[in-house]
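Dear V.,

Thank you for sending over the compound details. I've combined the ligand you provided, magnesium ion, with the protein sequence from our construct and run the structure prediction for the complex. I'm sharing the raw inputs here so there's no ambiguity about protonation or stereochemistry in the SMILES, which I know was a concern on your side last time.
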Amino acid sequence: MNDLTGVTIAFDLDGTLVDSAPDLIGTLNRMLAIEGFAPVPLSSARHLVGHGARALLRHGFAEAGATWDEAARPELFDHFIADYVAHIDHLTRPFEGVVETLDALSARGAILCVATNKRTDLSETLIGKLDLARHFAVVAGPDRVSARKPDGAHVIEAVQLAGGDPARAVMVGDASTDTGTARNAGIPCVVCSFGYGDVPPEQLGGDVTIDRFADLPAAVDALLLRR
Ligand SMILES: O=C(O)COP(=O)(O)O
Ligand SMILES: [Mg+2]
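Below is the predicted structure of the protein with magnesium ion bound, written out as structure tokens.
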């Protein structure tokens, strides 16, 4: 096993480290119920997670036949956040193998950080409640950096905040936002097929696809060898 000292691995959060769709869609469905609309099924709505809360609301409302008009009803967004915070870890769990794999990568010297389109405060709350905080040098939501994914600046600045070198970084994600970020930043990308991607994983434009989180170290080794 190679030494990973000097390598930084930047993780997407929703759909990559944690299976958070049940709680996010739960909040979406409680809001739809208040507005008098039927819930959207988890199976058809999970691919909406990964582009931030506003995108989830806009597309989730559309899927239910409702209209998300934040300009007319700004209180709805605050309601979404309050409801989500109240339920943030009810059903959400790390994907299988996450804790052991992060420990193994850290033990080999890698710096780990998070680059997510979920707001930093919500991300830190969730990561704390799931007892994952010790793994990460920094958790960077879009509000902690100068631009949000798929802008490459999001992952570059997250890696720098973690004390790492973007020239020796790898992105790990589940959606087009992540592969786009990696491409824009000029860093390689591992795609997690078990996440919330909206197209088949091999069409996302990543460098390696993994079907289990535990396969990540081998994927990182393969990418670093290729470089
Ligand atoms: O959609 C979100 O809330 C953020 O999702 P991400 O962690 O996949 O970037
Ligand atoms: Mg994601």
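A first observation: The chain has two domains: 8-19+92-226, 21-87.

Warm regards,
I. M.
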